[in-house]
């Protein structure tokens, strides 16, 4: 609740960027249209701000079939973590048997169930039963697909036998679409369990079915069960790597990568490099290179060096894998070596390689200084505005915009915790996000990798007191980028100079003509007068320009430090420059900690505490409307509940009503 309130109140996503993307994208191109919807969801992930969707309903309504599924699911990414009102937010789109609107599309219904899982990912107790019931009550494969993905997200890592039985029942219907979702959901449910009995059952069915989508879902599902298992996963990995089916070998690459995530294990790196250059399947080689990023995510400086030669491979699939490997391992680090390698791949002649380079570069630079992000922003704007750019490359640029501005520009991407351990949800989310190569709706899993760049100091009652911390850097060092609408227009400046120059030249020419005419007519006195006026005007104009130049050069010197109000945005590169003010009433119990939610001791516990009010209906810098969805039922910002510590009056009790089951 505290982090949700932080993301809402500090939201700095620029809606002007989305408007530019919308105007540059041809609505008839479904790939770029869907990419714009994905970018908006990632850009506002966790902020609960859906202003862009509300203002562009007609444009959004052009989505059909699976694009409609993705558009509806985007609500889940935007309202990620808003568990108090999660069900109410997607209620208009839920299946009719569960209270949705009559006549709604099965694609909207499936997308709504997927969205509900995204909202409750990591804390799914409130939605798990409902998603199970929805899965049991439908026979439509589209709704089953959405319900499986939602159920997997809500029950991730719980190893619930009842949920596994329901997913297995859907899998055994042998429906390609529903079966793929069931396979992925099984992997999410058993994430990190290394349950050999369950994986044997999944492998057996993968070998029996004729549907590639089911095999691919089960292959990645088996890989997820081995997350951080290391040697315990060696048996399954060897079985998959030696299989004749390239899709199962593809799953074997992910099994190795996820099992040894963050370990930099030499044996795993050696096997992945071997398959990256020897396997006959493009998909397997691409996956082998990509999973080097997972293995090396704890030592990101090594990854660009290891994949540098692979980035020059003749195979575009290998080059794409190298780009994504650097993006996964170096996410949020802004390493110069990674940026340099991706700059070269961004000029590749193959469209999907450029797509991977744009996305990976955004992952590397998310949360970095604006000076480092500015060249990428300019590059992405140019690619998106280019009407002759290939759709796949343009899609990558649009997604990169969403990732670069993720969570209202208040998040970073991290696969590890502060203590160096793998974050299960983030690693699983990144692995499934890379499957968007095959299935675009899986793009929303990138939201699971976001980690709020927040410092939230709380007292013993877990309330947020009014206080400040010191940042020993100028405000511009890690400040938000200037909104696009506030940037000066170059054309206006150039036009102004041209007008002034032309006017001065015209006046001078007119004065010279008048002087010549006066001389010709013998009126010397008049000529001298005209000459004096010209000189006077030129001297006045010169003095005005000189004075204007001096005023322009005079700038207020920027402060060398600033105080950040609680809760504050503190990105990882900024942490070493942030400290609590000496003599502050509230000091963290964990010495030296300057990020995350920090419990603080109170030096004067007997005195009254001024608390930070919850950001209800305000604090939205993107221009979001005051009537955010379902604020009457808790509010977009009020999802923080009493986490913001507001002192307002208690709300009146609701009127009496008759409840009939």
From TrEMBL:
<dbReference type="GO" id="GO:0008540">
    <property type="term" value="C:proteasome regulatory particle, base subcomplex"/>
</dbReference>
<feature type="compositionally biased region" description="Pro residues">
    <location>
        <begin position="651"/>
        <end position="661"/>
    </location>
</feature>
<dbReference type="Pfam" id="PF01851">
    <property type="entry name" value="PC_rep"/>
</dbReference>
<feature type="region of interest" description="Disordered">
    <location>
        <begin position="513"/>
        <end position="576"/>
    </location>
</feature>
<protein>
    <recommendedName>
        <fullName>26S proteasome regulatory subunit RPN2 C-terminal domain-containing protein</fullName>
    </recommendedName>
</protein>
<comment type="similarity">
    <text>Belongs to the proteasome subunit S1 family.</text>
</comment>
<feature type="compositionally biased region" description="Basic and acidic residues">
    <location>
        <begin position="513"/>
        <end position="558"/>
    </location>
</feature>
<feature type="region of interest" description="Disordered">
    <location>
        <begin position="614"/>
        <end position="661"/>
    </location>
</feature>
<dbReference type="GO" id="GO:0043161">
    <property type="term" value="P:proteasome-mediated ubiquitin-dependent protein catabolic process"/>
</dbReference>
<dbReference type="InterPro" id="IPR002015">
    <property type="entry name" value="Proteasome/cyclosome_rpt"/>
</dbReference>
<dbReference type="InterPro" id="IPR016024">
    <property type="entry name" value="ARM-type_fold"/>
</dbReference>
<feature type="compositionally biased region" description="Gly residues">
    <location>
        <begin position="637"/>
        <end position="646"/>
    </location>
</feature>
<feature type="domain" description="26S proteasome regulatory subunit RPN2 C-terminal">
    <location>
        <begin position="454"/>
        <end position="612"/>
    </location>
</feature>
<keyword id="KW-0677">Repeat</keyword>
<dbReference type="Pfam" id="PF13646">
    <property type="entry name" value="HEAT_2"/>
</dbReference>
<dbReference type="GO" id="GO:0034515">
    <property type="term" value="C:proteasome storage granule"/>
</dbReference>
<dbReference type="Pfam" id="PF18004">
    <property type="entry name" value="RPN2_C"/>
</dbReference>
<dbReference type="InterPro" id="IPR040623">
    <property type="entry name" value="RPN2_C"/>
</dbReference>
<dbReference type="GO" id="GO:0005634">
    <property type="term" value="C:nucleus"/>
</dbReference>
<dbReference type="InterPro" id="IPR011989">
    <property type="entry name" value="ARM-like"/>
</dbReference>
<keyword id="KW-0647">Proteasome</keyword>
């Amino acid at each position: 609740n505290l982090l949700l309130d932080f993301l809402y109140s500090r939201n700095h996503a620029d809606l002007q960027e989305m408007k530019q993307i919308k105007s540059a994208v041809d609505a008839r191109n479904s790939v770029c249209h869907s990419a714009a919807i994905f970018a908006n969801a990632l850009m506002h992930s966790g902020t609960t701000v859906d202003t862009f969707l509300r203002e562009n309903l007609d444009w959004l309504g052009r989505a059909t079939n699976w694009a409609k599924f993705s558009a509806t699911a985007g609500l889940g990414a935007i309202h990620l973590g808003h568990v108090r009102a999660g069900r109410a937010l997607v209620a208009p789109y839920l299946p009719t048997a569960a209270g949705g609107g009559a006549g709604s599309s099965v694609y909207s219904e499936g997308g709504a169930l997927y969205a509900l899982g995204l909202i409750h990912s990591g804390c799914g107790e409130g939605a798990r039963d409902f998603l199970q019931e929805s899965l049991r009550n439908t026979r439509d494969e589209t709704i089953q697909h959405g319900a499986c993905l939602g159920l997997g997200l809500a029950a991730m890592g719980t190893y619930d036998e009842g949920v596994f039985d329901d997913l297995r029942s859907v899998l055994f219907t042998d429906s390609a679409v529903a079966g793929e979702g069931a396979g992925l959901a099984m992997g999410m449910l058993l994430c990190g369990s290394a349950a050999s009995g369950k994986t044997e059952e999944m492998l057996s069915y993968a070998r029996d079915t004729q549907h590639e989508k089911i095999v691919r879902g089960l292959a990645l599902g088996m890989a997820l069960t081995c997350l951080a298992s290391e040697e315990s996963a060696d048996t399954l990995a060897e079985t998959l790597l030696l299989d004749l089916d390239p899709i199962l070998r593809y799953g074997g690459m992910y099994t190795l990568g996820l099992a040894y995530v963050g370990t930099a294990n030499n044996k795993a790196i050696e096997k992945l490099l071997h398959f990256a250059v020897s396997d006959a399947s493009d998909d397997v080689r691409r996956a082998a290179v990509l999973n080097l990023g997972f293995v090396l995510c704890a030592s990101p400086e090594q990854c660009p060096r290891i994949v540098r030669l692979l980035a020059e491979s003749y195979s575009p699939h290998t080059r794409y894998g190298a780009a994504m490997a650097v993006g996964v391992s170096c996410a949020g680090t802004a390493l110069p070596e990674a940026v340099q390698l991706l700059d070269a791949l961004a000029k590749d002649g193959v469209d999907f390689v450029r797509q991977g380079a744009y996305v990976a570069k955004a992952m590397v630079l998310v949360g970095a200084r604006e000076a480092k992000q500015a060249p990428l922003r300019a590059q992405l704007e140019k690619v998106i505005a280019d009407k002759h750019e290939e759709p796949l490359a343009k899609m990558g640029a649009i997604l990169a915009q969403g990732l670069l501005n993720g969570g209202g520009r208040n998040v970073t991407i991290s696969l590890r915790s502060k203590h160096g351990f793998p974050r299960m949800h983030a690693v699983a989310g990144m692995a499934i996000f890379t499957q968007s190569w095959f299935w675009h709706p899986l793009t929303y899993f990138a939201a699971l990798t976001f980690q709020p760049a927040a410092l939230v100091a709380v007292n013993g009652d877990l309330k947020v007191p009014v206080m400040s911390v010191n940042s020993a850097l100028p405000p511009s060092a890690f400040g938000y980028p200037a909104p696009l609408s506030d940037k000066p227009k170059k054309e206006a400046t150039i036009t102004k100079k041209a007008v002034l120059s032309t006017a001065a030249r015209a006046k001078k020419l007119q004065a010279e003509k008048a002087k010549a005419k006066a001389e010709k007519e013998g009126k010397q006195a008049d000529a001298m007068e005209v000459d004096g006026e010209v000189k006077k005007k030129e001297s006045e104009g010169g003095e005005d320009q000189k004075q204007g130049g001096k005023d322009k050069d005079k700038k207020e010197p920027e402060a060398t430090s600033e105080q950040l109000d609680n809760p504050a945005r503190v990105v990882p590169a900024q942490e070493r420059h942030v400290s609590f003010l000496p003599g502050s009433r509230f000091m963290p119990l964990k010495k030296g900690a300057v990020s995350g939610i920090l419990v603080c001791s109170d030096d004067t516990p007997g005195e009254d505490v001024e608390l930070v009010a919850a950001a209800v209906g305000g604090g939205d810098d993107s221009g979001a409307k005051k009537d955010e969805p379902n604020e009457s039922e808790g509010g977009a910002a009020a999802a923080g509940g009493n986490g913001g510590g507001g002192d307002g009056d208690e709300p009146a009790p609701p009127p009496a009503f008759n409840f009939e089951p």
